TrEMBL record:
Domain of life per record: Bacteria
Family: Belongs to the universal ribosomal protein uL18 family.
Ribonucleoprotein keyword on record: yes
Keywords of this entry: Ribonucleoprotein, Ribosomal protein, RNA-binding, rRNA-binding
SUPFAM superfamilies according to UniProt: Translational machinery components
Subunit structure: Part of the 50S ribosomal subunit; part of the 5S rRNA/L5/L18/L25 subcomplex. Contacts the 5S and 23S rRNAs.
Protein name, entry field: Large ribosomal subunit protein uL18
Gene3D superfamilies given in the database record: 3.30.420.100
Function of the protein: This is one of the proteins that bind and probably mediate the attachment of the 5S RNA into the large ribosomal subunit, where it forms part of the central protuberance.
InterPro entries in the cross-refs: Ribosomal_L18, Ribosomal_uL18_bac-type, Ribosomal_uL18_bac/plant/anim
Coiled coil: none
Tagged with keyword Transmembrane: no
Length: 120
């Protein structure tokens, strides 16, 4: 029987494989959440570089948030990431949820990024 970690790694790799197949050169918006924080970055897989990133650990957000582990924090990270992406000249991305289900904090971050001007 596979362990929980093995299952999560398999699910994440399956999602990334599907995303890279349909990306058509677009950068990937990768999201990771832990029990205390949420992290997001826009990655150009062709060049192997991170174009923009944001997390609840950023000094801009840290002081204004009550905690880094709720949907309000995820919304703030999504808006900040969209702002940084527009400064970097990125509009179109593909969404990489990793091994996480599109629900709760992951969904809040994605919707805030869409409102901020990212297309996916």
């Amino acid at each position: 029987m596979a362990s929980r970690k093995d299952t999560l790694v398999r699910r994440a790799s399956r999602v990334r494989r599907q995303i890279k197949a349909v990306a058509n050169g677009r950068p990937r918006l990768s999201v990771h959440r832990s029990s205390k924080n949420i992290y997001a970055q826009i990655i150009d897989d062709v060049a192997g570089k991170t174009l923009a990133s944001a997390s609840t650990l950023d000094t801009d957000l840290r002081s204004s948030l009550k905690t880094g582990a709720d949907t309000a924090a995820a919304t703030a990270v999504g808006k900040l990431l969209a702002e940084r992406a527009s400064k970097a000249g990125v509009k179109d991305v593909v969404f990489d949820r990793g091994a996480f289900i599109y629900h709760g904090r992951i969904k809040a971050l994605a919707e805030a990024a869409r409102e901020g001007g990212l297309n996916f």
